[in-house]
Specification:
The protein is α/β, with parallel strands linked by helices. The chain has 11 helices and 11 strands. The chain is 29% helix and 18% strand. The strands form 2 sheets. The chain has an 8-stranded mixed beta sheet, with helices on both faces. A hairpin with a 2-residue loop joins strand 9 and strand 10. Helix 2 crosses helix 10. The model has no long low-confidence stretch (mean pLDDT 95).
């Protein structure tokens, strides 16, 4: 007798917990997008595990109708690695913030990425410590004035993409909290990737860092200051879709199609699957200060050996060579060990 396949909806991934984020916080949007992405993929809630560390974003596991673990500061990646390695069949998500992930949790983050553990890392970047009330974070710009830097910071920030690529990331994407459609699509795409996927979400903290990403999220100029990358498509942007990215020498340049001799043929086609990450890094590092748009979408998506799959296969190979599975069987085999 055939059983009818269950079709899950976004509401099936919502818990009954009251969402304790400030009204207007970008985290609400990301949670909503994650519910929709899981429904799109039709992943049973019982097959999901959502892990987090400490911070505003790290409350997210409470709001998922799935397995979850709100762990300790910075250790979410280590716990998520253990969960996925112990049960490779689970769809594992790590929810983390710029402080939780890139400060005390930086070492765990880079090694989860380097190992290519099949977990989905969603990095909420609001460039501030929100839960602890407004200290500067590892992604705050030099000179940023906060409660812990009243005269401005005197250090340069981490750029999440740069750190991820330095750890040999095979999947990196970037989205903004106000773009619900594309954020949902990217989260769903990240879940399909075999290996560690890193999705940086530029979110707004309405209390301690309101408007930090306004220069690219505002509808009046978002189209001119961002380019949404799609594999196999031209890197075109702008309100009139008349601007594009070209490579001149060793540098990227934003041009207007039809001006200064540039035609549509000159515009780069995005290849997210090429193993060489040189162009991916250049795209991820584009800034408005250099008269370039901020790259959004899936910037890199490359296949590579997956840590938990390799461990699982290794265990099975060793077990096949030695089928003895119980301690009593080992003791009764008659083998003798001489200890000197």
């Amino acid at each position: 007798m055939e059983t009818e396949e269950i079709k899950y909806q976004a509401k099936d991934y919502k818990s009954d917990q009251y969402v304790r984020w400030c009204p207007g916080c970008g985290d609400h949007a990301v949670l909503n997008c994650l519910h929709k992405a899981m429904a799109e993929l039709n992943i049973p809630p019982k097959d999901m595990a959502v892990i987090s560390g400490i911070g505003c974003s790290s409350r997210l596991p409470y709001y998922m109708n799935s397995y979850g673990f709100h762990t300790i500061h910075g250790r979410g990646a280590a716990i998520a690695t253990g969960v996925k390695t112990a049960n490779p069949d689970l769809n594992v998500w790590l929810i983390t913030g710029d402080g939780d992930c890139l400060a005390i949790g930086g070492n765990h983050f880079i090694h989860a990425v380097r190992r290519n553990v099949d977990i989905n890392i969603v990095l909420f970047n609001n460039r501030i410590y929100g839960l602890t009330k407004g200290q500067y974070s590892p992604t705050s710009e030099r000179g940023f004035v906060s409660k812990s830097s009243p005269y401005g910071t005197v250090e340069d920030p981490f750029i999440p993409a740069e750190l991820a690529f330095g750890a040999r990331s095979n999947y990196f994407a970037r989205v903004v909290d106000v773009d619900l459609k594309n954020t949902t699509a990217v989260l769903a795409d990240a879940a399909k990737h075999a290996g560690a996927s890193v999705v940086e979400v530029l979110v707004n903290c309405v209390i301690f860092n309101d408007g930090i990403h306004k220069n690219i999220t505002d509808k009046d100029f978002r189209a001119d200051r961002t380019v949404f990358l799609r594999h196999g498509e031209k890197m075109i942007f702008g309100k009139e879709a008349n601007k594009g990215i070209v490579l001149e020498g060793l540098k990227l340049k934003a041009v207007t199609i039809g001006e200064d001799g540039y035609t549509l043929d000159n515009i780069l086609v995005h290849d997210a699957h090429t193993k060489d990450n040189t162009l991916h890094m250049m795209l991820a590092m584009m800034t408005n200060e250099d008269d370039l748009p901020i790259a959004l979408g899936v910037i890199r998506d490359v296949e590579a050996p997956v840590y938990d799959q390799c461990v699982d296969q290794q265990v099975k190979e060793v077990q096949a060579k030695n089928p003895t599975r119980k301690l009593r069987d080992f003791l009764m085999k008659g083998e003798i060990w001489e200890v000197k």
